[in-house]
Write a structure and sequence with these properties.
CATH superfamily of the largest domain: 4'-phosphopantetheinyl transferase domain
Largest sheet: 5 strands, antiparallel
Helix content: 25-40%
Radius of gyration: 18 Å
Structural class: alpha+beta
CATH architecture of the largest domain: Alpha-Beta Complex
């Protein structure tokens, strides 16, 4: 990705996060950048906390368009509503930094399968992004000229990973999940799950892509895997979260040869 398109890798987080109207630096504390050797292609991954102070939440609410405000109002529970506002508003703040415009001026649309995209920005027609959120945290990935998918999930252990895997995982993934000790199964399940979700989101095809028909089993042993024309990489957003990023395979080295300029937030799961 050209260096003048996205914020430079050595840019201070405070400078990037302040943006328009003095947005506070703590609001956007993390960026990870991934690029293939010798290539300018990259994905920028941003961490958006979903429990900002009330004053910040209100400012984020003011960035939303009428349709987004109406959608937020339909949430039954206040916490769900506030987290959605924080995720959507945070996405607008970040995209405004890339587009050099105020957050409320970012024009969004939906693609053929409902995947969000920029509505009309000729100077930034190649900009792509993907947002994922789970209770407490959202992640945003931004690229130029290539589709991208990102997924984040809060880790939990109050379910049967093997039973759920039967409906969504490929046979080799199920066998690997069965082979690990029960205590490690939830973490491995979410490593596979977020990777598959990231690929489906990059494709933009939603539920029409059966996740049983491709495998990310290699993630049991390393941080990257190639599947369905994409390279998927585990991310470590910190705390009790699992996450993954998917890019077209040409954009990253599936053998793990990508170089990363990153600020890691946790150890993650290692098989």
């Amino acid at each position: 990705m050209p260096a003048d398109t996205l914020p430079p890798a050595n840019a201070g987080f405070g400078d990037l996060a302040r943006g328009h109207a003095g947005w506070p630096a703590p609001f956007l504390p993390l960026r990870e950048t991934f690029a293939d050797r010798g290539s300018e292609e990259a994905a920028h991954c941003w961490r958006i906390p979903l429990l900002p102070p009330p004053a910040t939440l209100e400012r984020l609410r003011q960035t939303l368009c009428p349709e987004e405000s109406a959608r937020a109002a339909r949430f039954r529970f206040a916490r769900d509503r506030e987290e959605w506002v924080a995720a959507r508003g945070g996405m607008r703040v970040l995209l405004g930094r890339y587009l050099d415009c105020p957050p409320h001026a970012v024009r969004l649309a939906a693609g053929d399968n409902g995947k969000p995209c920029l509505a009309s920005a000729p100077a930034h027609a190649r900009l792509r992004f993907n947002l994922s959120h789970t209770p407490g945290l959202a992640l945003l990935a931004v690229t130029e000229g290539q589709e991208v998918g990102i997924d984040v999930e809060r880790l939990r252990a109050d379910f049967d990973p093997l039973a759920l895997a039967q409906s969504f995982f490929a046979d080799d993934e199920i066998e690997i999940l069965r082979a690990v000790v029960p205590a490690l199964r939830p973490a491995l399940f979410f490593a596979f799950w977020t990777a598959k979700e990231a690929i489906v989101k990059a494709l933009g095809t939603g539920l029409s892509t059966p996740t049983t028909e491709f495998s990310v089993a290699a993630l049991a042993h390393r941080q990257t895997a190639a599947a369905h024309g994409f390279t998927v990489r585990l991310l470590h957003p910190g705390g009790a979260y699992a996450a993954a990023l998917a890019l077209p395979s040409a954009a990253q080295d599936a053998r793990g040869g990508s170089r990363a300029n990153s600020q890691s937030c946790g150890d993650g799961w290692h098989g």
